[in-house]
């Protein structure tokens, strides 16, 4: 189960920063990076295999505070935490009693997580395309320029200017669908929520 979460870790990072409609595509994305400093939401994540069969479904909450701080708490049915303090990213699997440690630079890289960095240079890593609206949602497609990013495509959807859904397909053909609810833009967040202390007796795996 830890492998499934690890594969989607980078994708989860990417969606944190995008929660406004793309009325003018890339221009709106750049404007968003200048105006959004924090975010809070609930989410439901479903992972499918290449044939569309459900592999996993989990609920949780997420927090974001720029630059590079985020927290994803998977609550049911698999308890895990993905926390970045701005320098390091901790993936804590409660069932396995194991923490995977990575630096923020390695998590961002040239993967979809590079969207987390924000700024006008986003087009250096992704080809952004405005898609037709679907079921009342405004959609944007992001394709990585480098072939070794680990993901084929990421599609982000918005409803009335707020983040609604995210769909991505990884290099193995598996797809992940994340539905967001109770989205709050620029809430007041406690900095301590982005700190992580390794529990006693838990194994730590680093790179």
Features:
207 residues; 3 helices; globular
What this model shows, in words?
This protein is mainly beta and 207 residues long. It is built from three helices and twelve strands, in the order H-H-E-E-E-E-E-E-H-E-E-E-E-E-E. It has helices at residues 2-15, 26-35, 104-108, and strands spanning 38-48, 54-65, 69-76, 80-85, 88-93, 98-103, 126-134, 137-144, 151-159, 162-170, 175-185, 203-206. A twelve-stranded mixed beta sheet has the order 7-8-9-10-11-1-2-3-4-5-6-12. Strand 3 (69-76) and strand 4 form a beta hairpin. The longest helix has 14 residues, at 2-15. It is globular and about 50 Å long.
- What portion of residues is helical? 10-25%
Portion in strands: over 45%
Low-confidence stretches: 17-22
What global shape is seen?
Answer: globular
The average pLDDT is 79
Question: What is the structural class?
Answer: mainly beta
Number of strands: 12
Round the Cα radius of gyration to an integer and report it. Answer: 16 Å
H/E series, N to C? HHEEEEEEHEEEEEE
Give a quick account of the main beta sheet: strands, pairing sense, barrel closure. Answer: 12 strands, mixed
In the sheet with the most strands, the strands line up as: 7-8-9-10-11-1-2-3-4-5-6-12
List the helices and strands and how they pair.
Elements: H1 2-15, H2 26-35, E1 38-48, E2 54-65, E3 69-76, E4 80-85, E5 88-93, E6 98-103, H3 104-108, E7 126-134, E8 137-144, E9 151-159, E10 162-170, E11 175-185, E12 203-206
Parallel strand pairs: 6-12
Antiparallel strand pairs: 1-2, 1-11, 2-3, 3-4, 4-5, 5-6, 7-8, 8-9, 9-10, 10-11
